[in-house]
């Protein structure tokens, strides 16, 4: 529903009315709401993994213990649950996308650098 509001609001901008939704977002330098949520989730995951929330984030993510990983070397392991509702949890939403991030984004030294590299990775889907 909120995505519909964003679609209508971008049509109100002069000169963008007849462009497709994706082209309007690209012209304005915005992400779709779904991508914005994913970006926020990945930033929070980065903060957890770098120790920003030590007490709260203890044991939140499980790292894969393997030197044979392609892509980034900070792969996360997805838990197994019997209930489908668990697939909507934060940790389950983030793992798949985190494992697809490039190595230079995941190994960023600071949050600001991670955000810049994450924006580049999200704007150029492979």
**What gross morphology would you assign?**
elongated
How are the strands of the largest sheet arranged?
1-2
Please provide the ordered H/E string of secondary-structure elements. HHHEEHHH
On the 0-100 scale, what is the average pLDDT?
78
How many beta strands in the DSSP annotation? 2
- The Rg value, from CA coordinates, equals 17 Å
Protein structure class: mainly alpha
* Major β-sheet profile: 2 strands, antiparallel
In helices, the fraction of residues equals 40-55%
Share in β-strands: under 5%
Assembly classification: single chain
Low-confidence stretches: none
Output the number of helix runs.
6
Taking the alpha carbons of the first and last residues, their distance comes to 28 Å
Q: Helices and strands in order, then pairings?
A:
Layout: H1 2-11, H2 21-28, H3 33-49, E1 62-63, E2 76-77, H4 90-100, H5 103-106, H6 111-123
Antiparallel strand pairs: 1-2
Q: Care to give the gist of this entry?
A:
With 126 residues, the protein is mostly helical. The chain has helices spanning 2-11, 21-28, 33-49, 90-100, 103-106, 111-123; strands spanning 62-63, 76-77. It has a two-stranded antiparallel ribbon.
Plain-language structure description:
The protein has 126 residues and is mostly helical. The chain has six helices and two strands; from the N terminus they run αααββααα. The protein has helices at 2-11, 21-28, 33-49, 90-100, 103-106, 111-123; strands at 62-63, 76-77. It is elongated and about 50 Å long.
């Amino acid at each position: 529903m909120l995505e519909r509001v964003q679609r209508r609001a971008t049509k109100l901008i002069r000169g963008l009315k007849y462009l497709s939704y994706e082209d309007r977002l690209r012209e304005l330098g915005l992400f779709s709401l779904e991508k914005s949520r994913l970006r926020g989730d990945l930033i929070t995951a980065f903060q957890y993994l770098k120790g920003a929330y030590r007490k709260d984030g203890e044991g939140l993510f499980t790292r894969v213990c393997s030197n044979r990983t392609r892509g980034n070397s900070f792969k996360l392991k997805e838990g197994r649950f019997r209930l489908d509702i668990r697939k909507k949890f934060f940790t389950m939403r983030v793992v798949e996308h985190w494992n697809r991030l490039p190595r230079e984004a995941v190994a960023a030294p600071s949050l600001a650098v991670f955000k810049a590299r994450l924006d580049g990775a999200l704007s150029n889907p492979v």
